[in-house]
Specification:
Layout lengths: L2 H12 L2 E5 L4 H12 L5 E4 L6 H12 L6 E4 L2 E4 L1 H6 L2 H10 L4
Parallel strand pairs: 1-2
Antiparallel strand pairs: 1-3, 3-4
Helix pairs in contact: 1-3
The structure holds glutathione.
Glutathione binds next to helix 2 and helix 4.
């Protein structure tokens, strides 16, 4: 496995909620606001602020067929992007967050 892939996978495995993000991205901001409003603990990695951000984004594209950010995982499950997490019913999001020990 490439080191970027290993790094991405470790972040997914070690965090109940992992958000691969970019600091200037409005969709990422909306996702982080939704999670914060839901009272969830989450780990956000700002790919534009780290040297290997582009490599990690490429690794995520290979792993999930999704290149855009935010790229969201809850309890190691790939949720998708901001539109996907916003589309979850409130109760569904809550049960995923509970199962991930994020609430
Ligand atoms: N439909 C996507 C839109 C996400 C999106 O367009 N993100 C932009 C950044 S704001 C992106 O990933 N652009 C390509 C890039 O940054 O490499 C979602 O809801 O997450």
């Amino acid at each position: 496995m490439s080191s970027a892939k290993t790094k991405a996978q470790n972040i997914i495995d070690q965090n109940g909620v992992a958000v691969f993000s970019k600091s200037y991205c409005p969709y990422c901001k909306a996702t982080k606001e939704l999670l914060s409003k839901s009272g969830a603990k989450f780990y956000a990695l700002e790919l534009d602020q780290i040297d290997d951000g582009a490599d990690i984004q490429n690794a995520l594209a290979e792993m999930t067929s999704q290149r855009s950010v935010p790229n969201i995982f809850i309890n190691k499950e790939h949720i998708g992007g901001n539109s996907d997490i916003q589309a979850l019913k409130k109760d569904d999001l809550k049960s995923k967050l509970t199962a991930a020990n994020a609430l």
